[in-house]
Amino acid sequence: MVAELRVEVVSVEEKIWSGQASILIARTTEGELAVLPGHTPLLGELVDPGEVRVRTAEGEHQWTVHGGFLSVTGDGVSVLAETVSTADGAPAGQY
Questions:
Q1: DSSP structure class, residue 74
Q2: Of 47, 32, 38, whose CA–CA distance to 72 is shortest?
């Protein structure tokens, strides 16, 4: 069985996406960060604008985020951004 990570991507206005993933990649003010299942808990500030990528069994999701934080806990990872848009610049609706 492959280990998975519970991921939530949330903007100020709505939940954008949640589900199981094998990896989350985001750019923080400290540099690019890859989060795998079992990652050490941390809190990071996202660069503005920045990119968040989530790899799942179905493929990869990608968003542009403006402002916000990344929180890794024993339960998973949450991306809390001021605004989130799709890679082509459209507002990201709920998945």
A1: T
A2: 38
Q: Would you call 14 helix, strand, or coil by DSSP?
A: coil
User: Which residues, given as ranges, of the chain have pLDDT below 70?
Assistant: 1-2, 87-91, 93-95
pTM recorded for the entire structure: 0.89
In the numeric block, the tokens 């998975």 are attached to 4
Nearest to 19 by CA among 70, 79, 68, 88: 79
Q: Buried (b) or exposed (e) across 5-28, using 16+ Cβ within 10 A?
A: bebbbbbeeeebbbbebbbbebbb
Distance from C-alpha of 6 to C-alpha of 56, rounded to nearest angstrom: 10
Q: List the one residue out of 20, 37, 17, 30 whose CA is nearest residue 86.
A: 17
Query: What pLDDT is stored for residue 95 in this prediction?
Result: 45
